[in-house]
Amino acid sequence: MLTLLKVQPLLKQPLTASLKTAARTVAIQAAIFLCGLVAVELALRLFFPLPPHGGEYRDANGNAARIARDADTLEPGLDVRHIASEFAARIRTDERGYRKMSRESTEPQFLFIGDSFTFGHGVPDDEVFSEVFCSKRGTACLNLGRSGTNTFDQVRLLRYGIDKYQLRPRTVVLTMLTACWLGVAGNDLGDNLTFYRSVKRSDSGDGPIRPARASLGPSLTDTLRTLQSWLGGFEITKRAMTVASSGLKAGVYACSEPGEIDAAASATSAALGELAQLAERYGFQVKVVVIHPFQDLVGGFRTSEVAVSQALPRGFGCIQTGSKFRTEHYFPYDGHFNASGHANLASILDATIDDAPNSCTSAQ
Asked: For residue 21, how far is the Cα from the chain centroid?
């Protein structure tokens, strides 16, 4: 027994020494790895920096350019490049501050309103779906698309153009980005609900309320956006996120609660009601085009199409596109349509816009 007790301390000593050696080795390797990452990060920042997520606008001299004149129009006569890791697109505006088209008129056959998808985020002038569609038909058009807007904003921009420039379109084409997860960035359903609730609460004097959230939890959307913004500040992670972002976004995707989607449909109905009043007053038709983020293509698009159909005023035509798009029609990291996505949408419009039904839920 005594002999065994004497042996145990002898066994502990070499074991403890081995652990210390292993820990020291791991620490040294970790330090070398971190130093290597810092060196790579600095080299990328100095010699091969990528633009920020969403891109940036640069003039002919390479200087940062501001494209917004005010809340209603962009700077007239712009000629800049929209640069990001996935694209470098020439962006021009006409004398009114709208995205330039090859054939324009104050009495266009088609006038397009919508957000960044309608504006043509990340693609040059001649590849925007409205330009492709109108060039094929040989008709005059206008593109009033404006990034970062909801449907209420887009109706306001149309009203401004009607009053300021006496625009008299024959057909207004409203393109709505919709998703069954209301927290998706740029989702018109979610943005309309947030705006509508804020206005209603503001009118009641109770102050703004918390925006609608998806069923994944009240803070997940903000957490993901904050994480993307923080990681997007590093050159190494920019490149990794460019590759992995599509799968990550799809992996955390889930539809919002039915009650919230119904509320979003009601808010959207209010926005479309304002557009219907303009249509009646100025005698133009309205066609609503329902598009989706790539995460919605696996089936969630049917839920958001139903929501838009519930909000659709009588007399509006609706064009659903969910089953006609694939993930290769989008920039994987940025999430907007690429050139093939715009070409696909132009083809869909050409085939359906003349006979668009008053429903977004017909068989596809």
From this structure: 51
Residue ranges per domain, the chain? Answer: 1-49, 93-355
Secondary structure (DSSP) of 121-145: TTS-GGGSHHHHHHHHHT--EEE--
Helices (H), the chain: 2-47, 116-119, 129-137, 151-165, 188-204, 220-231, 235-251, 258-282, 301-311, 339-352
CB distance 86 to 123 below 8 Å: no
CA–CA separation, 198 and 218 (whole Å): 18
Residue 81: φ, ψ to 5°: -115, 135
Q: What is the 3-state secondary structure (H, E, C) of 106-123?
A: CCCCEEEECCHHHHCCCC
The architecture in CATH of the region 93-355 reads 3-Layer(aba) Sandwich (3.40)
Largest CA distance in the chain: 105
Single out the residue of 142, 143, 146 nearest to residue 71, CA to CA. Answer: 146
Q: Alpha-carbon distance 145 to 112, whole Å?
A: 7
Q: What angle do CA 146, 312, 303 make, to 5 degrees?
A: 85
pLDDT in tens, 102-159: 999 999 999 999 999 999 999 999 999 999 999 999 999 999 999 999 999 999 999 9
* Digit-coded pLDDT (tens) for 277-317: 999 999 999 999 999 999 889 878 999 999 999 999 999 99
Is there a contact between 280 and 313 (Cβ–Cβ < 8 Å)? no
- Half-sphere exposure (Cβ direction) of 230: Cα atoms closer than 13 Å: 6
Whether 254 and 287 have beta carbons less than 8 Å apart is answered as no
Calculate the alpha carbon distances from 168 to 61, 156, 160, 302 in Å: 37, 15, 12, 33
